[in-house]
Design a protein that fits this description.
With 204 residues, this protein is mainly β. The chain is built from no helices and 13 strands.
Length: 204
């Protein structure tokens, strides 16, 4: 009797599966829009904080915002404007703030736990507002009296106010005496939020 040896060859096809890369959550960013850095308030102050959030790969409206003065938490901001998918605005009222200097930051945490901190906003709360400083400079101090034969040659002065005020700037203000008037020029130069300059001339 003949014997036979049968060999079966099994072929296995190798299936290569590329590795799945884990998605990286990009951290959000936050900035304090209001108040501006260096702002001053009168005690007891009620200060509105407005924070702007941007999340490049998530919903900014789903983030949470915490406000800190130094290392002390002063509150949580509330969503006020969902905006586009990656941007949102949050607000917080800090009430009855006593006099002092404060260093405030906003911390954002997105819906996946990534965090970021804003730049510092330095604010000051004072008992009384600082008094404005008014400076008068004779830009053209040489003047001549008005007569029939002479040309009007008024003396020109520049009046500058530094620091804030709760009164509106005067325009075309005149003294009661018609003979000697200090006329404020209609052109008001807004040098900055706390610095205003007027051009004026003295008429004899």
């Amino acid at each position: 009797m003949k014997k036979y040896c049968v060999v079966f060859a099994a072929l296995a096809a190798a299936l290569v599966v590329p590795p799945v890369l884990a998605q990286t959550n990009q951290p959000p960013t936050v900035s304090i829009v209001n108040p501006r850095d260096g702002a001053t308030f009168i005690a007891p102050a009620n200060i509105l904080f407005l924070a702007s959030v941007h999340d490049p790969d998530g919903s900014a409206a789903a983030a949470s915002i915490e406000l800190f003065e130094g290392t002390n938490k002063i509150g949580d901001a509330q969503l006020t404007d969902p905006g586009p998918p990656h941007d949102a605005a949050f607000l917080f009222y800090w009430t009855n703030v006593p006099p002092g200097r404060y260093d405030v930051t906003a911390k954002v945490t997105d819906d996946q736990g990534a965090t970021a901190t804003s730049a510092h906003a330095h604010i000051t709360v004072v008992t009384n507002p600082p008094l404005p400083i008014v400076t008068i400079v004779a830009t053209d101090p040489v003047a001549s009296e008005v007569s029939i034969l002479t040309v009007i040659d008024p003396g020109i002065f520049t009046i500058t106010r530094a620091s804030g005020t709760n009164a509106a700037p005067a325009r075309n203000r005149q003294t009661p005496a018609e003979e000697s008037l200090l006329d404020i020029s209609p052109i008001l130069d807004e040098v900055g939020p706390d610095l205003v300059a007027w051009s004026a001339f003295l008429r004899f």
